[in-house]
Amino acid sequence: MNTYSIVLLDIDGTLVDSNDQISHNTKSLLNRLEKKEIPVVLCSARSPSGVEIVVGQVGLHSPIVCYGGSLIMDADRAIIEDRGIEGNTAVRFKQFAAREFPKVTVSTYMYDIWLVDSISDPNVQLVAQRNQCEPLVGELEAAINSVSHVHKLLCMGTPEEITRFQNSAAREFPELEFARSGTIYLEVLAKGISKCTAMEKLRTYYGLDAEQVVAMGDYFVDLEMLRHAGLGIAMGNAPDAVKEAAARVTTSCDEEGVYIALKNLRFTPPAQLRP
Predict the structure, then answer these.
(1) Per-residue pLDDT tens for 183-195?
(2) In angstroms, what CA-CA distances link 160 with 87, 152, 156, 247?
(3) Domains of the chain
(4) Residue 50 has pLDDT above 70, yes or no
């Protein structure tokens, strides 16, 4: 039976259920793993503050992965990785979206700033409510003068429009990565950044082999991470293509899928954390 030394968990649709809750069994299991010095890493497209909400709910003390891999911080929140989209590229992308797909909402994330065009946009209100974050209205052209890069662009619209937008934008911007994190969400990152590259960064950080990594997720943004983990586990609520990329499929996020998948696995701490 294989032994694992780190767990990477997507948040929305994986760790939290459809009511944004985490079961008592799941919390208790993750706490026990951390007490055994197993890093339990939340690996999300959310901002740092959005991830920290869930960190606090569970009571974790491990590194976190934000913006789908653009920003990685250790257990003390020192930065391990900080990469993103060059400012002028982000501006061109927003201009392209406004011109070609005016019904798609595009917002920008940099560190813990969420920059939007309008707070009254229903898509913005939806994300603000779910992630308990405050948007800031402002011009991206002005904001990029004070940062070296933006961590991600989030595009929101109807499923059909987002699909058409992704196909068109991918042709127009080959220097960017595109991944769906939900039926109405499209994550846009700098080329070469993903949850999979974040997993590899943390694997090196802890001195682990790929076989020692467990990763869990539910959507296309998680697909490559699941495919390349030592044990990739897809949620029961994941699309078929994501399930096919994983080594195992657990129950849904509403049926304690994380708890059921992890409870019988064997774990040992990374060598550098052992007494």
Answers:
(1) 999 999 999 999 9
(2) 28, 22, 11, 30
(3) 3-45+202-268 (3.40.50.1000), 87-190 (3.30.1240.10)
(4) yes
